[in-house]
Amino acid sequence: MRGVHLLSSLVVLALASFLASATDPGPLQDFCVAVNDIKTGLFVNGKFCKNPDDVVAEDFFTSGLDMPGDTSNKVGSNVTTVNVDRIPGLNTLGITLVRIDYAPYGENPPHTHPRATEILVVAEGTLEVGFVTSNPQNKLFTKILKKGDVFVFPIGLIHFQFNRGHENAVAFAGLSSQNPGVITIANAVFGSNPRINPDVLTKAFQVDKNVIDYLQKQFWVPN
Ligand SMILES: *[C@@H]1O[C@H](CO)[C@@H](O)[C@H](O)[C@H]1NC(C)=O
Question: Is the pTM of this model over 0.90?
Answer without folding.
Answer: no
